């Protein structure tokens, strides 16, 4: 079917007229017992939209397809676009994020040749590739527009995946309050559908648990985990069940229940191992290694094995934030083993991966470098790293992660015997953890006067 001279912009009626003339047909040639010549004229002028049976009859007589009459896209081009989209999605699954981003961009540049579902798939793929390459603001803009798209039905797999991604992106960008708001609203909308706890609930709930945990709202995270675990056990896939145990382990660790956290993480890792999600399995190994470093006494040798295995996988399928977090855990393991050069190299690599953005991970990397400088008896370099870490943290909203980073900085200043700087850091740690300063007595007296 040759449509090279037909113009997609002319509309359905224009395409019918163009093809009819090109085929040397008259309007009455398209008419039938059910469709009059005058009705054909109305269709060609754009005053009537044919029903599905009439559209199929017209397509047959014009030697074309109903899809071409509707969209202006011929079968060959449509098939070519479907293949391009499939290859872009495959590149994304294989960790070729840059290649996938380029392919999705090329498809969207010619979005007039795509139908609605293909446009949405390409936009979801583009946003996911942007997220994986660390361009969170750009990813959020695309996911947010999709989240507001009325063509995407609430409760559908597509809608749920977009809500999860948007919640995750805001959390990783540091806007935890908005991440939680989006997650809670999405869960409430699912609840409003009157369904039992579904896989969609589990996926959203797990993401929301992570945001609660990052904010330091451990009670709420624990309660949500207790709601999700029975549902995950009865109907969840290995991956979904593993994700719930994974987040329950994070909460237990933050509450100081390290042995329970390790048991939960081991169970999550066993479940993830039965699936094919390389990235999640790698992140779980990283979490497991991190927990072993927190034990008393710590187990840095075993932790190093787990972390090196996680690093190898994340180098292929992880994003910059995940890989830098792994590098920082490796820095901690090497530091505990007394390998200061290796520890410093890992911390430097983490900084290089994160770029110039002010992030908690960047501050943590500088705190590790400061500690290594202290161990090497290089106090001036240590002080520079501590001031740089503090400057970055002051630009960020409060969170559990920033509270831990401030605590680390305070401990290092105390080792310097710089008590004033240590107190400032501890004060910031308490504020980041959600504890407001107490009002000075003289301020209360002043109010009474």
Account of the 3D structure:
The protein has 449 residues and is an all-alpha fold. Among the domains are: 8-72, 434 Repressor (Amino-terminal Domain); 277-355, Serine Threonine Protein Phosphatase 5, Tetratricopeptide repeat (Alpha Horseshoe); 371-449, no CATH class. Helices cover 76% and strands 0% of the residues. α12 runs antiparallel to α13 (218-235). The longest helix is centred in the N-terminal third of the chain and has 19 residues, at 75-93. It comes from Streptomyces murinus.
- CATH topology category name of the domain at 277-355: Serine Threonine Protein Phosphatase 5, Tetratricopeptide repeat
The ordered H/E elements are: HHHHHHHHHHHHHHHHHHHHHHHH
How far do the termini sit from each other?
90 Å
Biggest pleated-sheet summary:
none
Number of helices: 24
What is the mean pLDDT? 87
Give me the Rg, rounded: 29 Å
Number of strands: 0
CATH superfamily of the domain at 277-355: Tetratricopeptide repeat domain
Shape: elongated
**Uncertain stretches:** 1-9
- The structure class reads mainly alpha
Q: What's the CATH architecture of the domain at 277-355?
A: Alpha Horseshoe
Strand content: under 5%
Helix % is: over 70%
CATH class of the domain at 277-355: Mainly Alpha
């Amino acid at each position: 079917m040759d449509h090279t001279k037909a113009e997609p912009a002319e509309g359905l009626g224009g395409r019918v007229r163009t093809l009819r003339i090109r085929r040397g047909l008259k309007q009455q040639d398209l008419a039938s017992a059910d469709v009059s010549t005058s009705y054909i004229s109305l269709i060609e002028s754009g005053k009537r939209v044919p029903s599905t049976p009439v559209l199929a009859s017209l397509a047959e007589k014009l030697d074309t397809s109903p899809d071409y009459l509707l969209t202006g896209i011929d079968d060959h081009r449509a098939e070519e676009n479907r293949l391009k989209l499939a290859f872009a999605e495959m590149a994304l699954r294989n960790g070729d994020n840059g290649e996938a981003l380029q392919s999705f961009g090329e498809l969207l540049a010619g979005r007039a040749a795509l139908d609605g579902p293909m446009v949405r798939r390409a936009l979801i793929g583009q946003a996911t590739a942007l997220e994986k390459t660390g361009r969170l603001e750009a990813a959020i803009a695309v996911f947010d527009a999709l989240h507001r798209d009325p063509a995407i039905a609430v409760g559908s797999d597509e809608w749920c995946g977009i809500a999860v991604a948007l919640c995750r992106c805001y959390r990783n960008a540091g806007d935890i309050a908005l991440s939680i708001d989006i997650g809670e609203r999405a869960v409430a909308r699912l609840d409003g559908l009157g369904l039992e706890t579904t896989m969609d609930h589990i996926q959203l709930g797990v993401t929301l648990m992570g945001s609660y945990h990052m904010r330091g709202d451990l009670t709420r995270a624990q309660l949500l985990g207790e709601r999700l675990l029975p549902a995950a056990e009865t109907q969840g896939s290995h991956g979904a069940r593993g994700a719930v145990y994974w987040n329950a382990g994070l909460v237990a660790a933050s509450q100081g229940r390290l042995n329970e956290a390790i048991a939960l993480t081991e169970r999550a890792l066993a479940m993830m191992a039965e699936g094919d999600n390389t990235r999640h399995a790698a992140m779980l190994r990283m979490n497991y290694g991190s927990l072993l470093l927190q034990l008393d006494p710590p187990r840095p040798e075993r932790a190093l094995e787990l972390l090196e295995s996680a690093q190898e996988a994340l180098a292929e399928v992880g994003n910059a934030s995940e890989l830098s977090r792994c590098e920082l855990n490796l820095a901690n393991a090497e530091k505990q083993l007394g390998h200061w050069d290796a520890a410093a190299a890992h911390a430097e690599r983490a900084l290089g991966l994160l770029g110039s953005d002010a992030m908690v991970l960047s501050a943590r990397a500088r705190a590790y470098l400061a500690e290594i400088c202290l161990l090497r008896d290089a106090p001036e370099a240590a002080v520079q790293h501590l001031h740089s870490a503090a400057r970055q943290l002051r630009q960020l909203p409060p969170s559990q992660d920033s509270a831990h980073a401030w605590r680390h900085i305070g401990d290092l200043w105390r080792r310097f015997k710089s008590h004033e700087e240590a107190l400032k850091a501890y004060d910031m740690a308490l504020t980041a953890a959600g504890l407001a300063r107490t009002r000075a007595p003289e301020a209360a007296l002043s109010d009474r006067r």
